[in-house]
Amino acid sequence: QVQLVESGGGSVQAGGSLRLSCAASGPRFSSYAMGWFRQAPGKEREFVAAISWSDANTYYADSVKGRFTISRDNAKNTVYLQMNSLKPEDTAVYYCAAGPYDIGYKPREYEYWGQGTQVTVSS
User: What single string gives the DSSP state of each residue in 27-83?
Assistant: First the structure.
């Protein structure tokens, strides 16, 4: 029922910035917690950031704290991930996800997933 489409990925040099967007279909976007995950080749999908549906609190993986910012615009059914001070280790496919919980840190806690957008950071 819910479809998510990521955009904004690309290639950037270390220290640069990118802003990812995730457009969601459906009128109940505000009822879902939204998260960002990433997956590099040969690695498991890992949590990056999440924003709650109840109070818009935000949570981040330790590896991105102070550099990434997640936000949402319920009127536009869109969630964003602002990524600053990018590092080569940030290179991955980034996925947005929607889940029924107030907040989620595990992939299994999210029900809907986007197709992913590639982020490549060069040194």
Answer: TTGGGSEEEEEEE-TTS--EEEEEE-SSS--EEE-TTTTTTEEEEEEGGGTEEEEEE
- Radius of gyration of the chain from Cα atoms? 13
Residue of 68, 62, 4 whose CA lies nearest to 32:
4
- The Cα 28–Cα 99 span in angstroms is 11
> For residue range 3-60, what is the model confidence (pLDDT) as tens digits?
999 999 999 999 999 999 999 987 677 778 899 999 999 999 999 999 987 767 999 9
Measured distance CA(110)–CA(3) in Å, rounded: 13
What are all long-range contacts of 74-77, with beta carbons under 8 Å and residues at least 24 apart?
74/29, 74/30, 76/23, 77/23, 77/24, 77/25, 77/26, 77/29
DSSP state of 100: S
Residue type, 3: Q
Distance CA 32, CA 88 (A): 31
